[in-house]
Design a protein that fits this description.
Aminopeptidase, eight-stranded mixed sheet, 18 strands, about 30% helix, globular
Length: about 425
Amino acid sequence: MEKIDHSCTERFLRYVRFDTQSSEESVTTPSTEKQKKLGAVLVRELQEMGLDDAAMDRRGYVYATLPANVDDEVPVIGLIAHMDTSPEVSGENVQPQIHRNYQGGDIELKETRIRFEENPALAEQIGQDIITSDGTTLLGADDKAGIAEIFDTLHHLTAHPEIEHGTVKIAITPDEEIGRGADHFDVKKFGADLAYTIDGESAGQVEDETFCADSVTITVQGINVHPGYARGRMVNAIKIASELIAGLPRDSASPETTSDREGFVHPMTLNGGVEKTTLKFIVRDFTVEGLESLERMLKKLADEVARRFPGARLDFKVEESYRNMKFKLDEQPRVMEYALEAVRRAGLAPQRHAIRGGTDGARLSYMGLPTPNIFAGGHNFHSRQEWISVRDMQLAVQVILNLIQIWREKGQT
């Protein structure tokens, strides 16, 4: 492996201290202005490394270019990560902890612990340095580890101009965690022929498949009258919504009862009152056919419940979120082949993996930019038990460097 004077750990420890939680309730882009505080720092660091065009647009997207140092035609590679953290767990005042020379067993944190028996990947980290939060917040490895790894790669390349490479484009996006990271991504301005998000989990994983995803909103319209005079007249939207939730399958088709390639229907929010209540669901499956089947099941349930409450009205609305990126990536097989080769050159066994979720790359692939996902090394994303190892961050940097060099060697157009 190439000798690298790594900076990813120091960068990561600095980035996670920025509170960059996105917000599903917001209608602005970025959904939270505080994301731009980290964005401004990232722009400055890129400029200090000599990427003179580094800038953040008004929506919080950070773009930059590392120019080619060769004359021959090489495809332009994009490297993408996201700056926001999940709204599900606090990202305010993150206090990263380094557990040096980990020797196995549970990792004790404030208010929680990372259980060895529930984290089989910890068995591969004996003797390594593990980074966690203090247990009161998430850590932010999703995806500040990806940012740190991309920037470490750039630091190495700019410090070693003798390493030949084509043009590399950089993008750091806001609002990925709420499914809006690609909403205002300017693919034409970005100017890459292909890209990789650095946003995966275990070392060695390369992901070329995601769920197909939709959101479903069911609005229940009831009839509200004074409760003292409601007999035979009130139709309670809250009770109707409760029956709908109670009618969902208990042992299947939910996040807590599925794994591998099984899809699910997941109620996310329930808001309202007697007269009007709104339920929001996410629906996921690896095929469009499976997705539509789950939506038909949900629609049938909603219709059955509505019939039990004369006078009620139910509005059922489906919105497309993203589709399985594999359908597009299979059209350009070199994008995945070179990623797997980059993992091998780092001394790892490549693991081709399907994501039970999505990435910016899913939508970008359908916007004309084929974008699989490469591991960043984190585990237990969106939780106070989140952790990452220093070694795996450094391995991710090596893989990114390998990728850039492989496209230089093999990818001439």
